[in-house]
Design brief:
Blueprint (H helix, E strand, L loop, with lengths): L1 H19 L2 H6 L12 H17 L2 H9 L4 E2 L2 H8 L11 H20 L12 H22 L2 E2 L14 E2 L1 H21 L17 H18 L7 H13 L9 E3 L9 H9 L2 E2 L2 H9 L5 H4 E2 L31 E2 L9 E4 L1 H14 L3 H28 L16 H11 L5 H15 L7 H13 L12 H4 L8 H4 L3 H7 L18
Antiparallel strand pairs: 1-5, 2-3, 4-8, 6-7
Length: 517
């Protein structure tokens, strides 16, 4: 009995001891001390840059766009379906991963903006430089969201349990918001000084804030051109775009260029093709390059995982865009871009802006100035193609046979091409060729088919067919937009109602391309 009493007394004493512990101690007993609940803004920025480059610019969205604009031919599985229009475009599951990634980026950018606010309690409070960078990334991702999907959850989105069924904002209102975000970014980047302090955490510019500022100006120019169909005074907008470009990149060293790729970290286009072999060389782009005697085609044609091919080779097998053909892997010829393991991903490039500047100048009747911009852009485009060829050869997946007579592309090749193809033109013919040359330059491993897709749709809105696509299915089933992600079509009644059966993707342009949503 004495032993039992002693034990009970011990428990009572322990209970009294616990009761005397502070509430603070009790609150920490069950806390997970091994995982961080908050991180410095610089770590979030690194993730934002990486995810935007690999999953948004270089990922699935760009892969499908490359088929839509006939940069690539889809030969198997999902890309065969996209090529022949028997599925994918109007299937909610097709773009769900990208849809979710965009919203993750939007949420994370908002977190950085909140952490760096002047009245924040974070250690990053008042950091205008990093805030400006986050605002640029927010605008970039928001633009991709609405450019592809049109009306979308935005002002009520990314709030978690606070709002599980956000309403859709109109594309027009989203564009107004993201343009305002870019204006804030410009002001914050100017206030933040020339160095953000991010250093190696900044995978684009290594902490050079002045280049982020130029990126913001260039991005605003690109997005302003998207909305040109809606402009009442187009000449005024062209001049605004020219002014923005003049404040943007001064040369290619300032490109928004993501490249941390090596033999272990692959360019997304290479990763996709190497893993799946869903691409083949597009008959449509072959025709365009051959019609112009474009020397780039003498460098980029290859057997699947094999030797270099000449444009007239008997072994050449091209994808008949959209025609009836059997889905098959390992047979169709493909371009060197598919194997460019370490090619850069461009969020925005100097040569894209030179083409954009040339377009504005040509539309304003300033032909000589427009041609000067095209000449610069073509030299860089040829250089970029050769760099991709060399990256493809270095990957070990392609080879030049010993008797191959093709030679590396040079600036002189680009200048000769310019003199033959562009220099003699003027007026509408010059404008049309500028758009074709931009189309050809943005064909590659750099994630630029997505912007080409935007170009094609805005030209359609203006009644222009400068870049003639050849897929016969386009007469009734050209994808005018992407279908919403299944994570929202199955859970958010607002998105579900907007998606319907998905067929709207073939009939309803987005707002800036002449549609209503």
């Amino acid at each position: 009995m004495k032993k039992i009493f002693s034990t009970l007394f011990g428990f009572a004493a322990l209970s009294l001891g616990l009761a005397s512990c502070s509430e603070d101690v009790m609150d920490t007993i069950n806390k997970d001390l091994n995982h961080a609940t908050d991180v410095s803004a610089k770590f979030i920025v690194t993730d934002l840059i990486t995810n935007t480059a690999i999953n948004i610019v270089g990922g699935d969205l760009n892969t499908y766009a490359s088929v839509a604009v006939e940069h690539e031919g889809g030969v198997f599985n999902q890309l065969y379906n996209a090529e022949t229009r028997v599925g994918e475009w109007n299937t909610a599951s097709c773009f769900n991963n990208s849809w979710s990634n965009i919203y993750n980026n939007i949420k994370n950018a908002q977190i950085v903006i909140a952490k760096t606010a002047d009245d924040s309690e974070s250690t990053d409070a008042g950091n205008a430089a990093i805030r400006g960078i986050a605002e640029v990334i927010l605008a970039h991702n928001s633009a991709v969201l609405t450019d592809l999907f049109g009306d979308a959850p935005y002002s009520e989105a990314a709030k978690g349990a606070e709002n599980m069924n956000p309403a859709l904002d109109t594309q027009q209102s989203i564009y107004q918001s993201l343009m305002a975000t870019l204006d804030k970014a410009i002001a914050d980047l100017q206030a933040g000084g020339s160095n953000s302090g991010l250093g190696s955490f900044d995978y684009l510019y290594g902490g050079d804030n002045s280049k982020w500022l130029k990126f913001a100006y260039g991005l605003k120019a690109r997005l302003l051109m998207h909305t040109i169909y809606r402009a009442s005074d187009k000449a005024s907008v062209y001049n605004q775009i020219l002014s923005l470009i003049d404040q943007s990149f001064a040369d290619p060293s300032e490109d928004a260029e993501f490249n941390v790729y090596d033999s272990s970290n692959w360019n997304p286009t290479f990763d996709f093709q190497y893993s799946r072999d869903y691409f083949g060389f597009s008959q449509s782009i072959y025709n365009k390059m051959m019609a112009r005697n474009d020397k780039r085609i003498t460098r980029i044609l290859f057997e699947p995982y094999g030797y270099h091919l000449t444009p007239d080779s008997d072994d050449l097998l091209l994808v008949p865009n959209g025609e009836d053909f059997a889905p098959v892997q390992w047979e169709y010829s493909f371009d060197a871009y598919c194997m460019a393991m370490t090619a850069s991903t461009y969020l925005l490039s100097y040569y894209e802006l030179q083409f954009l500047k040339a377009e504005c100048l040509a539309r304003l009747g300033r032909d000589a100035e427009a041609k000067a911009c095209v000449k610069i852009a073509l030299e860089l485009a040829f250089e970029n193609t050769e760099a991709s060829v060399q990256a493809a050869l270095a990957s070990g997946q392609l080879a030049m046979p010993d008797d191959d007579e093709s030679t590396a592309l040079t600036a002189a090749d680009a200048d000769e091409y310019f003199a033959n193809i562009v220099e003699p033109l003027s007026g509408d013919a010059l404008l049309a060729e500028i758009m074709v040359q931009k189309y050809l330059a943005m064909y590659g491993a750099n994630g630029e088919s997505l912007e080409t897709y935007n170009d094609i749709r805005r030209m359609k809105a203006l009644g222009e067919n400068f870049v003639e696509l050849e897929n016969p299915k386009n007469s009734s089933k050209f994808p005018l937009r992407y279908g919403y992600g299944s994570s929202d079509t199955t859970t958010n009644p607002n998105v579900q109602a907007a998606f319907g059966n998905g067929q709207y993707v073939f009939s309803e342009p987005v707002w800036w391309a002449g549609g209503s949503r």
